Amino acid sequence: MKRASKALLGATIVWSICIALAQSTERVNSIAAPKTPLPPEARSAAVTKFSFIVYGDTRGRRDGAAIQYDHSMLVDSMLERIRNLQSTEYPIKFVLQSGDAVLDGRDVRQWNMSFVPIINRLTEDGGVSYYLVPGNHEHTDTAAGMKNYLDAVSALIPPEGSPLRAPGLTTYAFGYGNTFVIALDANVAGDEKQYRWIKNQLEVLDRQRYVNVIVFCHQAPFSSGPHGGARVEPATEQLRTLYMPLFNAQHVRVVFSGHEHLFEHWVERYTDASGPHRMDLIVSGGGGAPIYQYAGEPDLTAYLKANEPSKLKLEHLVKPGADRGLNPYHYIIVRVDGQMLHTEVVSVDWGKDFAPYRSNTVELQDHD
């Protein structure tokens, strides 16, 4: 009996080692390239009307064991809207995802089983380009997390060495029509190389063509969920002190972020030598991760005081619900019409009647 037990134990150990070795050699499957990729920048210069989708935080409790169910519901809805808008003036051309694709980005199985097959539906069936920035759950501060993220997006984002990719970083940019998009890695918001690269992109940008500059990242400069409110996380502080003055100086139109699993909308108004300006900051983290709720207003005293010379004012246009049931899974469709940006919040399941603005649409501009 003892010999049998030892043999069984030995076999179990060998089997466990084999499984571990197999998992260590697995790779994250690359998300399929879009069936209809964006054209080179020069070829879309005359485009002034189109749409794109924004959402974030798709991680789920069963990552690695099953397809992300709630995320799948959103993608079903996205594909329907892509089909419906395809032959209109405002076809959906790309999707921005603000991070936290899976629960643990170091785990190959979570990407391959739960996330990548869903996104392949968007790039292959929907035919649209898909852009993902890393969230904190991607764990790109580790070798495994970084490798897995880069393997997943290898066919989607500008390659290393491209002038639209920051050297050695996950930061990148792309242009389509009259709109330029910057993917900022807020996990390393304090990284000087990233800041210099983004600053240079903005300073040399042809603003006669690119009248709309969009930034998307994971953590938000301002939020009122459990990651915001009275808390000031390091990434938030760095975004406020480093990037917000830069974005104001360069007249960025909108910053999209996630991290908070809810929807909220801030508007920042400021004045410089060219006159008054508006920047919208929209948090959209309803991609399928466990829903959050309102936790309180952030203390913005120091931020407002530091920006007194520009007469800066912040308005919390839409606050998230105090109950999780008031914060549904959702995504945003942004319609570009010249310099006019119009957003529609599309929710699914129990939140299909979600009306954050007393309706589910709003124009990102002030009216006289």
What form results from the Cα inertia axes? globular
Per DSSP E runs of 2 or more residues, the count of β-strands stands at 13
Radius of gyration computed on alpha carbons: 21 Å
Strand portion: 15-25%
Q: Number of helical segments?
A: 7
Low-pLDDT runs of 5+ residues are 6-24
CATH topology: Purple Acid Phosphatase, chain A, domain 2
Please summarize the sheet with the most strands.
7 strands, mixed
The topology string of helices and strands comes to: HEHEHEHEEHEHEEEHEEEE
Architecture in CATH? 4-Layer Sandwich
Query: Spatial order of the strands in the main sheet?
Result: 4-5-6-7-9-8-10
Assigned CATH class: Alpha Beta
**Which homologous superfamily in CATH is the superfamily?**
Metallo-dependent phosphatases
If you average the pLDDT, what whole number results?
Answer: 93
**Overall number of domains:** 1
Distance between the termini: 88 Å
Structural class: alpha/beta
Q: Provide the helix percentage.
A: 25-40%
Plain-language structure description:
The chain has 368 residues and is of the alpha/beta class. It has a single domain, classed as Metallo-dependent phosphatases (Purple Acid Phosphatase, chain A, domain 2), CATH 3.60.21.10. The chain is 28% helix and 22% strand. It has seven helices and 13 strands. The strands form two sheets. Strands 4-5-6-7-9-8-10 form a seven-stranded mixed β-sheet, with no helix packed on it. It has a six-stranded mixed β-sheet with strand order 3-2-1-11-12-13, with helices on one face. Helix 3 links the parallel strand 2 (92-97) and strand 3. Helix 2 (69-85) runs parallel beside helix 3. The N and C termini lie far apart (88 Å). The relative contact order is 0.13. Residues 6-24 have low confidence and may be disordered.
